[in-house]
Amino acid sequence: MRNLSAKIACALLAVSLVTASMSGCGKETAFDGTEEAFVIDGESVNVGKANFLLRFQQATMMNYYAMFGQNTSALWSTATEGGTYGEQFKDDMLENIEKMYLLKSHAEEYNVSLSEDDIAKADAAADTFISANDKEVLKKLGVTKEDISEVLQLYAYQNKMAELMTADTNTEVSDDEAAQTSITYVKVSTTGTETDSAGKTIDLTDKERAEKEELAKKVLEKVQASDDVANADMSALAKEVDENLTATTRSYGSDDTTTDDVLKKAAGELKDGELNAKVVEGTDGDGYYVLRLDKTFDEEKTEQKKTEIVNTRKQEKYNEILDGWLKDAEKKTTKAWDQLKVTDKDVYTFKQAESTDTNGTDSNTGSTSSSSTDSSSSVSSSSDSSSTSSSSQEGTDE
Asked: d(Cα 15, Cα 9) in Å, to the nearest integer?
């Protein structure tokens, strides 16, 4: 299920980025977007709206994977327990779209409605999208200006409803429940970087591991020799030893499962701003750490964790209500919906902005094009990337 904050962000994304161009690749097919795709609690949804929502989220997902440098050439054909990832994605999207319409149908229960200004903004954004996209792409989507405007109005309902549906959520979080400890460390990795003929990683020899430990000890000595250990720039000092090393700052609490227990134990024996006197070997033997305890009780991170906990509670409340509505709703899909496929042969992505103009600012072209290659966008994903984490981290390990 999506995080509540992701749902709100999704609404904002749709409204602000609907003018971003989409490009479709593959065989051009046009269909009658006015055909009925599915019915949810008596409301008929045409295939134009359903297809637009499906493809918009498909493009968002493609962008998300591309942002992290992952190969998307065979994304939708990837095998899953229930078929392909594309089929699973389509099933999930049907449920998400149904929930959007249920939010609208239950809006009166929360005294929610859209203002004339809300509708005018949706209409204006729809106009911009229509004018910005190639006619062939619009035919493939089977979408009209009215369809897009209604979709954006659904996002507006979603945004308005979310807060009201979770208004009675308990927002009290104790310090004990949210308490966060902050540490900074430099990790010298002992994971092999070479592979054998079979592609298996070759472990470091005892000699190579000893050399890594000595490297960590040199970093420790650098930090120990600094004038102010508590505020020393451990990244800069580590790079004086090896330019590939960097420091990581991490906060963790009682529910943390990602921070090495060896670090937690060592930090528990230190005072704020104190450096561990010895290099610490990781639990799995995958590296040597130079560790500093920054704050046993980090007030700022603890407050952030409290917000995180409250958002999680709201998420659970929101999902509970929506799942209940969906369970009780009467649902029916048609052949028009069944004919929509999410495959690697028919890919939708956000079109990248043109290169900077003479003033050094990005220029929007507004048009779309068809391409056989994936194009990534600089925008953030509105998919399940915003899930709550039990720890925050800055920097990277070697």
From this structure: 10
- The residues, any chain, with a CB within 8 Å of residue 242's CB and separated by 6 or more, are 188, 215
User: Rg of the Cα trace of the chain?
Assistant: 26
Give the angle subtended at the CA of 84 by the CAs of 327 and 336, to the nearest 5°. Answer: 60
CB 257 within 8 A of CB 283: no
What is the Cα–Cα distance from 258 to 11, expressed in whole angstroms? 31
Residue 23 is given by DSSP the state E
Q: Distance between CA atoms of 208 and 192, rounded to whole angstroms?
A: 10
E-strand spans in the chain? Answer: 22-25, 36-40, 43-46, 79-80, 83-84, 181-189, 247-252, 280-281, 287-295, 331-333, 347-350, 392-394
Around Cβ 94, how many Cβ atoms within 10 Å?
20
pTM of the complete model beyond 0.85 = no
**CB of 350 closer than 8 Å to CB of 42:** no
- Measure the CA–CA gap between 12 and 93, rounded to whole angstroms: 18
Q: Write out pLDDT tens, residues 191-229.
A: 988 888 888 888 999 999 999 999 999 999 999 999 999
Taking a C-beta distance cutoff of 8 angstroms, is the pair 74, 347 a contact? Answer: no
Distance in angstroms (rounded) separating the CA atoms of residues 140 and 32: 10
Q: Looking at this protein, which amino acid is placed at residue 371? A: S
Asked if 182 and 249 count as a contact pair (C-beta separation under 8 A), the reply is yes
Is residue 34's pLDDT more than 80?
Answer: yes
CA–CA separation, 283 and 262 (whole Å): 6
| Residue 348: strand pairing partners | 24
Closest CA relative to residue 351, chosen from 332, 367, 363: 367
